[in-house]
UniProtKB/TrEMBL annotation:
<feature type="transmembrane region" description="Helical">
    <location>
        <begin position="250"/>
        <end position="272"/>
    </location>
</feature>
<feature type="transmembrane region" description="Helical">
    <location>
        <begin position="25"/>
        <end position="46"/>
    </location>
</feature>
<keyword id="KW-1133">Transmembrane helix</keyword>
<dbReference type="GO" id="GO:0005886">
    <property type="term" value="C:plasma membrane"/>
</dbReference>
<keyword id="KW-0807">Transducer</keyword>
<keyword id="KW-0552">Olfaction</keyword>
<protein>
    <recommendedName>
        <fullName>Odorant receptor</fullName>
    </recommendedName>
</protein>
<keyword id="KW-0716">Sensory transduction</keyword>
<dbReference type="InterPro" id="IPR004117">
    <property type="entry name" value="7tm6_olfct_rcpt"/>
</dbReference>
<feature type="transmembrane region" description="Helical">
    <location>
        <begin position="108"/>
        <end position="133"/>
    </location>
</feature>
<feature type="transmembrane region" description="Helical">
    <location>
        <begin position="165"/>
        <end position="183"/>
    </location>
</feature>
<keyword id="KW-0472">Membrane</keyword>
<keyword id="KW-0812">Transmembrane</keyword>
<feature type="transmembrane region" description="Helical">
    <location>
        <begin position="284"/>
        <end position="304"/>
    </location>
</feature>
<dbReference type="GO" id="GO:0007165">
    <property type="term" value="P:signal transduction"/>
</dbReference>
<dbReference type="GO" id="GO:0004984">
    <property type="term" value="F:olfactory receptor activity"/>
</dbReference>
<feature type="transmembrane region" description="Helical">
    <location>
        <begin position="61"/>
        <end position="85"/>
    </location>
</feature>
Length: 380
């Protein structure tokens, strides 16, 4: 399969599916239904705050809040992708060498496999929530609200709402996670092409044993190749940094809410009184989906961070010592400009990468340990 076919498949998962009018209408209808339910339950949490009540309904509340934010950010995310991602195509895939095409193809295969797997997990999560269980009213706050305010319409409304879970779960995993990886895949081609051009600056003269310092043609060709690389790097960085700054606005809330969803499900598992055997499948699927989403964030963020480091490393290995002073000054400017790192940063010390993913996992396991210890003391 050609590289462009993999890109089209990933684009369908990330952009095209949300361009359908039916999907837009569905998301609008869901948001109109979801918003008052979230606000009402938030009010009930504040009015009747009890720890058991909060633990009981908080996981589904945060999950729906997360999905509501995903719906709200869908247009914003798609706009970033459509306007900015396709502006970074300094080089097209047709211009790449066979080796680069192979590397790009491998990247898009991984991205497509991740999207398919995460989508399958999200749909399994929707099915798991779609099938009724005896303890639904003890865990799903929507059923409790319907029982309190419109008991006569409860069954009808529930069966109308259940199919929307497929859309909700898909939006929850695709809007925040797929966009970063799709963006990362496009940047990967530009990175490989720029590294190839940097390695090609001296390629014509690699086997020449002696180069005259006054060889004007040699220095002119070096200048042309070097300036082309500088031009492409500046164009790439100026275009690439815009969506990164925009992504910083919404990635952090998604990260926090996703972590809270996972932690709250584990909290219910340890703290809820009574048997949870009928909820095991749901919880396993939810945790796996949240873990896959966290992995996508970490891999996508780390890939963007590695982009600038790999370009800088390739540039630092260029054999510049035969060049004239003008080309050396240009090279020094290029080196200083390439030292700036691409990052999705939350603060000066926190950015989206593997380290942040490990910190989140450690925080979740620490919370589990504390909850388990409290449970052991409670029953001892």
């Amino acid at each position: 399969m050609e590289v462009t076919n993999y890109i089209r498949i990933c684009r369908f998962f990330t952009v095209d599916i949300f361009e359908c009018r039916a999907m837009k209408c569905c998301l609008l209808a869901i948001s109109l239904i979801l918003s008052p339910l979230i606000l009402l339950q938030g009010y009930l949490f504040l009015r009747n705050f009890e720890l058991n009540y909060f633990v009981q309904y908080e996981p589904m509340y945060i999950l729906l809040l997360y999905m509501g934010v995903s719906i709200y950010c869908e247009a914003y995310t798609i706009n970033i992708i459509k306007i900015y991602i396709h502006q970074i195509q300094v080089w097209k895939i047709e211009e790449a060498t066979k080796e680069i095409k192979g590397k790009v193809r491998q990247t898009w295969i991984y991205i497509m496999a991740y999207m398919c797997t995460t989508t399958a997990l999200s749909l399994m999560g929707a099915i798991a929530c779609l099938v009724p269980t005896p303890r639904d009213e003890d865990l799903l706050f929507v059923l409790n609200l319907l029982q309190l305010y419109v008991p006569q319409w409860k069954n009808f409304i529930v069966w109308c709402l259940r199919p929307t879970l497929f859309v909700l779960f898909y939006v929850g995993v695709s809007v925040p996670g797929f966009a970063i990886l799709y963006y990362n895949g496009h940047l990967n081609l530009q990175k490989l092409m720029l590294k190839h051009c940097l390695g090609d600056i001296n390629a014509r003269f690699r086997h020449v044993e002696y180069i005259r310092w006054n060889n004007a043609e040699y220095h002119r060709q070096i200048e042309d190749k070097l300036m082309s690389c500088v031009k492409y790097h500046i164009q790439l960085t100026e275009t690439a940094l815009i969506p990164l700054r925009l992504a910083e606005v919404y990635v952090l809330p998604f990260q926090i809410m996703g972590t809270c969803v996972t932690a709250s499900m584990l909290l219910v598992f340890f703290a809820f009184e009574g048997s949870m055997s009928d909820q095991y499948f749901r919880m396993v699927i939810m945790v796996l989906t949240a873990s896959a989403l966290l992995l996508g964030f970490a891999v996508g963020g780390q890939g963007i961070e590695d982009l600038s480091e790999e370009i800088y490393e390739a540039l630092s290995q260029v054999e510049w010592y035969h060049w004239n002073s003008k080309n050396k000054k240009t090279y020094l400017f290029f080196l200083m400009h390439a030292a700036r790192k691409f990052k999705i940063k939350y603060s000066e010390n926190v950015s989206l990468n593997y380290q942040l993913g490990l910190k989140v996992v450690n925080a979740i396991f620490s919370a589990m340990s504390v909850i388990y210890s409290l449970q052991q003391k409670k029953y001892s």
